[in-house]
Amino acid sequence: xxxxxxxxxxxxxxxxxxxxxxxxxxxxxxxxxxxxxxxxxxxxxxxxxxxxxxxxxxxxxxxxxxxxxxxxxxxxxxxxxxxxxxxxxxxxxxxxxxxxxxxxxxxxxxxxxxxxxxxxxxxxxxxxxxxxxxxxxxxxxxxxxxxxxxxxxxxxxxxxxxxxxxxxxxxxxxxxxxxxxxxxxxxxxxxxxxxxxxxxxxxxxxxxxxxxxxxxxxxxxxxxxxxxxxxxxxxxxxxxxxxxxxxxxxxxxxxxxxxxxxxxxxxxxxxxxxxxxxx
Length: 279
What we know:
The protein is 33% helix and 26% strand. By secondary structure, it is α/β, with parallel strands linked by helices. It has a single domain, classed as Alpha-Beta Complex (Spore Coat Polysaccharide Biosynthesis Protein SpsA, Chain A), CATH 3.90.550. The longest helix has 20 residues, at 259-278.
C-alpha cells in the first residue's frame, strides 16, 4: 500500500516575484486555502497518512502551516472563525508531517533523492503542488486513481496528459506501448524536448508513484537537461530494466507554476467550490 507522499517544495517561485520574495509559492492561496494544502488533501483522499516535505531556505511557512497555532486558536476560540481552521486541523490531527532540506537546487531528481531519509524502503507518491488537479464529478482524485493502478501493477507510474506539440519543451514527454485505455508501458522519456524531437505529445505532470529502487538509480544518475539530476532520466533507466507505466488521468490540471494557470485555478475554485459551499 502507498502510505507515504513526498512534496518537493524547495524551489524559489521566481515567476511570482515579488510575492514570493518572502513567501513560499506553495503557500499562495487558491481562494482561501494554500496551494500545497490541496495537494495534501488529494493524497489523504488516496489513503496516504505520512507526508514528507523537501524544503529549502525561506520555507518555514510550510512547516508552520502544518502545525498547531496555539495563539491564533486561543484568540478565535468560541467564535465562528474556528470553522475556517477545521480542514487544516483535521489534516494535522490525522496525519504525520516531516521535513528535510535540499541545500542545493540540483533538479527534481535530486530533490526526490534528498527525501530518501523521510521515505525509507517504501513505495511512495510524489506530488508537485504547482500542478493543481481536480477530479471529474463523482470520480476519485488523480492520486487515488494512480494508487489503484499501483495496487494492480506494483511498479512506478507517472501521470500524463496531452499537450499542444509546440509546448513539449516545457515537460518531460513519453513514448509508450498502449496497454488499455489511457495506460501505456513507457518505452522512452525525454526531458523538455523541442517539438521536432518530442516522441509524442503526452507530457508528464506532477503526480508520480515510485518504487524504492528509484533512489539507487538516482544516486548514479548523471546531471542531464539543464545540468540537473532529472527524474525522467532515472525513470527511463527503470523502464529499460523493468516496467514504468504512464497513466492519462481523469480530471483537470491547472499549471499553478504560471500566473495564468494560477488565476484560472483560483477562478475555478471560487465558482465551483467556494461559492457553492457558502450557499
